[in-house]
Amino acid sequence: MSSRERITKTMLWALVGVLAVVTVARFTRGLGAVTNLSDAAPWGLWIAFDVMAGVALAAGGFTLAAAVYIFRLERYRRFTRPAILTAFLGYVAVAVGLLYDLGLPWHIWHPLIYPQPHSVLFEVAMCVMLYLTVLALEFSPVMLEHPWFDRPGFRTAHRLLKRATIPLVIAGIMLSTLHQSSLGSLFLITPYRLHPLWYSPIIWVLFLVSAVGVGLMMVTLESYFSAWLFGHRLPREELAGLGGAASVVLLLYAGLRLGDLAWRHALGPALALSPAAALFWFELALSALVPGVLLAVPAVRRSRRGLGLSALMAVLGVIGYRFDVSIVAFARPAGAAYVPTWMELAVSAGIVSGALLVFIFFVEHLCVYPEAHAAPAPARAPRLDPFGVRPILPEALAAPRRYSLALVAGAAAALGFLPGAGALTGRPTPVPVSPVRMVEGAITTVGAASGHRFALVQTAALSGAETRRVWLMVIDGNRDGRLVVFPHDLHEQALGGDGSCVTCHHANLPFQRDTACAACHRDMYSHTDIFDHDAHTAALGGNAGCVRCHVNRDGPKTRATAIPCVDCHAGMELAGSRVRPELRLSGDAVGYVDAMHGLCVGCHEQRVKEEPAKHPADFARCRNCHRDVDGGALERLAPYRSVHGAAAGVRLGG
Amino acid sequence: MTAKAILTDTTRCTGCEKCVTACKQVNGLGPDQPRRWKLRIDDLSATRFTTIVRHDGQFVRQQCRHCVEPACVSACLVGAMRKLPEGPVVYDGDRCMGCRYCMMACPFEIPRYDWAAAVPYVRKCTLCAPRLAEGRIPACVEACPEQATIFGDRDALLAEARRRIRATPARYVPHVYGEDDVGGTSVLMISSVPLDFLAAGKVTDQPLPELTWAALSKVPPLALGVGGLMAGVFWITGRRMKLQAERLDREAPGGPDAAAGHGPDHESDQ
Amino acid sequence: MHAWLEWARGPAFVFCFSFMLLGLVRHVGVTIWEIRRTLRRAGDRSLPLTAIVKATLTWLLPADRLRREPLFTATSILFHVAILVVPIFLAGHIALWARAVGVSWPAIPNALADVLTILAVVTAAGLIAQRLAARATRALSKPQDHAILILLALPFVTGFLVMHPGLNPFDYESVLFVHVMSGNLIFLLMPLTKLTHAALLPGTQVVAEIGWHWPKDSGSRVGAALGKEEEPV
After folding, report:
1. Which chains neighbour B (Cβ–Cβ under 8 Å, 3 or more pairs)?
2. Contact A558 C95 (CB under 8 A)
């Protein structure tokens, strides 16, 4: 085994390790926790890449089978085994990817018992299911050749399967034609959501033709890959033949696509200067125009680099076509961007890695490349030291040990990166924001320092040049049942515009329930930390000062186990202070609103209770002090109009 | 049972959202979903089947339109979405695979997914199908204090909508939204502002399932055609090779061994 | 520095700790797999279980060795007890676990932790000294053996400084960072170095025993016995 092969396999195993951890997260936490899918983007990377592109790239299987078995182009026979194996593993990867993407993957067999033949997806599901079976049967003779299967029962099966080759190949071609095209038909039902440059009544023809072309290119790339990895000879002459065929098919695809637009008089958007047009031309050039033209030149398709580059372009381009149709060019409401999470990427990469590992395993153990298989394995160099670190270990296990280590490292890294730093339990909790609603109101800029004032309805107090009518959001900002006016745009502006959303809307983070107003406006509502730890550390002489407060040597050093402030700051407590005694012990201070209300409201309530006759009924209600509330205007930080006297603002006591 | 429908007159809606509250209560929906899965804070979500959209100074109620020929029903490969004869498009979670093709297919972008759940289902308005079965009217209609949303036979409501538009033409856009849009819907709307923004584009009267069926109905002949073609090609190439081998045989006696490698039965010795 | 500290005891800790757990599980799995293979190849599945258990217990509770080499054995035992008890049962560590995953268990008094911490540092130094003192161990020791002992002592030294800020001449958070990161490094190295014995110890005697299970005719077919039949001699 070459070191190149070993390094490749190590990396693939590490990716499979990452996949293992993300798999656990995906199936315990749900789709929403590991993907960036949303109601505006219900299909994402897993559909676009694993299913749409995966099926297209696996088209080499039926294309090569048709060429060799039906059209009897014998010189391509060498490609059939790897192509069918690639197709088989590709479809297995599609099925596995689908299990991740489906919300209820344990219902994946439901099309069998609840068929709905009017659905394109039903046809795709049945064809993929049947074709996977056909591919397994097509490939199984290669497996049955292995000496391990050299037993009577298997020999019979081998013989029968060999005899069934032609019917199987024809069935495979029929099924492939159907579902390769139907994957395009899926989007026929979305004429309003798929961009006109991609939506077409013949999108199913485009999908089929592009799949045939990219299938051939994929077989080419796969030859390059095995030549690179296993050191096989590159069959240049035959590959050039495939390239020529692919050139015809790809140019046919480009012609159909442009011709269809022209036929429907829909070429307009393609000629406009727009991002969509740029994407359209880039994708079409990458997938078909450039590789198609390049491969039409015999010198290019005979050159190692030219053919490889063209194949790579075509493969990336057709993947791009599938991405455009299912994600990029699929309309979603403004502002609903979809960018996959690293976990979505890890699943796609992990599944491909797993498939590649199985591919390598088959190549190593079965006769996938008949011409290369006959070559004897190079003799291993003698090892002088028979007793390594652990002499009882058989040499053969050295490689699995390495790969299992890669697997473990990948899994641990994924755990470290998992949101919530690897806690596999716990799911994001929805924010309780049900009482949110919009009301009509007005906004007045009072002055740079004082900020803004809001009114729920237009009032005389708030009319004037500085006043404009707006929709005001009223929210239960602190989840305490009190509604406040919330100027969303002003917050967005103050926090830095686009991209500042996460400052408040990070409710989706595990362990982060919500972001209440008080998270930022601490001085308004919540008890505030008025204890400055750094200042105390500095004042008490650095590290040596810790024990002055954290006198308890057992147990962790937290605020709960430290001494109360009053032990040192004895003079802090004024005689006759109205500050409640339980608050003096901690580093917490009551919020501004509570503090101010606490000074007044208690007395007012008491008065109303004691002498109801002497006081107006609303003496203890908000409007008694907040006069501006009258008339429906609800103000943020309404200027408090004192009735007790201008100097003190409040009058304490009786 | 005749086809029932809802008629919403946006000019009468005051945006009080009593329909939203009633809907949440009747369907046992909890608080709204987190922001990350929706666009606006009061957007439809797995726990909000209807909402009031402010558009051009109008309150427009957004909910499932219960199409007469629903794209979601045609899209669903396991028949989890069904159109009931009395109007509602209902969903059966026991059949659903979670492929979310219905969400892609809906021209009004209505179905929502329960993203936060480990076992997620598609959620959307049911037109209160369980209540209809009991002979009651949808909760949102019952809750509306302004009769902005009313319930009844679809034909009767269509007539009422046309009557209102005729009575005060200045007040309405002269179109009953849902009469023929995408083949007609069971939620009809009349409005003083165009309501095209509720759909993903300017919808036509063509039912969307027809577009798919045009391609899907070609499937059986296509499959048979391709199969027949392949069998034919196989036979022709086989025969041609056989003739070639015979010719070589005739021209060069003792040569059939050399040509055997290209014979039609070659695959059996691979 | 605060952000670095959060990183060290957040993602970095999760990575290193899970790497240790998974890596040790992997070691146990690979060992069991190899034992099975070896037994099957040898065609001799009998194992002297009583002898193995006895040998394991003798190694775990080395009463006999304590008599023969009292100083080294005592140092080793005290060292192991200290480095196992302190990190697991320290009140501050338990508080971190309780905060992260909501699981807690009884803690040892901090005074006892202090004693054990000092003991761990002293015994680590003692082990190094004894390694260097005897000619045989000096010759057998690789640089790794000393480095691991120093690395094991590092979190105890820094931990002690963190617990006793009065004695700490350095910045508090920097020392805490070194403390966390050295602990992380130990976790990371555990499945990769001889620290693996933390998980493999109970199997050591089995492995040693299996070592003698050669395939039949091993004497005449040494290559096959060693699993190297394809290699030219």
Report:
1. A
2. yes
Distance from CA of A506 to the nearest CA of C (A): 19
Contact A223, A236 (CB under 8 A): no
Q: Using the beta-carbon criterion (under 8 Å), do B31 and A432 form an inter-chain contact?
A: yes
Give every CB contact of residue A534 below 8 A, 6+ residues apart in sequence: none
Taking the C-alpha atoms of residue C59 and residue C88, their distance in angstroms, rounded to an integer, is 23
Cα–Cα dist C197/C203, whole Å? 9
Nearest CB to B96; choose among A107, A163, A166: A107
3 state DSSP class of A369: coil
Could you say which residues of chain A have pLDDT below 50? 374-398, 421-435, 450, 458-462, 507-513, 581-584, 627-654
Q: Find the helix packing angle between A398-417 and A3-29, rounded to 10°.
A: 40
How do residues A469-516 score in pLDDT, each as one tens digit? Answer: 666 777 766 655 566 777 777 777 777 777 666 666 654 443 344 566
Name the token pair of B1: 């049972």
C91 in contact with chain A, both atoms CB, cutoff 8 A: yes
- DSSP secondary-structure letter at B41? T
Kindly tell me the sign of the dihedral angle through the C-alpha atoms of A8, A11, A17, A19.
negative
**From the CA of A541, how many Å to the nearest CA of chain C?**
9
Look-up of token digits 């480009």: A254
Q: How many angstroms separate the CA of residue C67 from the nearest CA in chain A?
A: 30
What is the C-alpha separation between B105 and A194, in angstroms, rounded? 10
Q: Which of C10, C23, C33 is the closest to A408 by Cβ? A: C23
Inter-chain contact A422–C230, Cβ cutoff 8 Å?
A: no
Residue in C with minimal Cα distance to A395: C227
Residues A404, C30: C-beta atoms closer than 8 Å: yes
Question: From CA A421, how far away is CA A510, in angstroms rounded?
Answer: 10
Pairing of strands B4-9, B187-190: parallel
- Amino acid symbol at C23: G
Residue from the list A379, A415, A547 with its beta carbon closest to the beta carbon of C15? A415
Residues 6+ apart with CB under 8 A from C233: A382, C223
Using CB atoms and an 8 Å cut-off, which of residues 146-175 of chain B contact chain A?
Answer: none
Look up the ipTM and state it: 0.88
Residue B232 structure tokens: 């034919």
Write down the domain spans for chain C.
49-207
For residue A230 the two structure tokens come to: 């296993």
pLDDT digits (tens, 9 = 90+) for B98-135: 999 999 999 998 999 998 888 999 999 999 999 999 99
pTM for the model stands at 0.74
Chain A contact for B270 (CB, 8 A cutoff): yes
Report the chain A residue with the minimal C-alpha distance to residue B199. Answer: A192
What are the chain A neighbours of B44 within 8 Å (beta carbons)?
Answer: 39
For the stretch B185-223, pLDDT in tens is 999 999 999 998 888 888 888 899 998 888 888 888 888
**Cβ of A413 and C207 within 8 Å?**
no
For residue B102, which of B85, B90, B86 has the smallest C-alpha distance? B90
Name the DSSP letter for residue A52: I
Q: In a 10 Å sphere around its CB, with 0-12 CB exposed, 13-18 middle and 19+ buried, how is residue C164 labelled?
A: middle
> Cβ A408–C95 below 8 Å, yes or no?
no
Q: Which two tokens stand for residue A496?
A: 């830095």
Name the residue among A206, A179, A178, A217 with its Cα closest to residue A325.
A206
List all residues 6 or more positions away from A94 whose beta carbon is below 8 Å from its beta carbon: A50, A51, A54, A55, A58, A128
Distance CA A95, CA A129 (A): 9
- How far is Cα A349 from Cα B31, in angstroms, rounded to an integer? 36
DSSP assignments along B135-157, one per residue: TPPPHHHHH-TT--EEEEEHHHH
Two tokens at A452? Answer: 């803004």
Beta carbons of B226 and A31 less than 8 Å apart: no
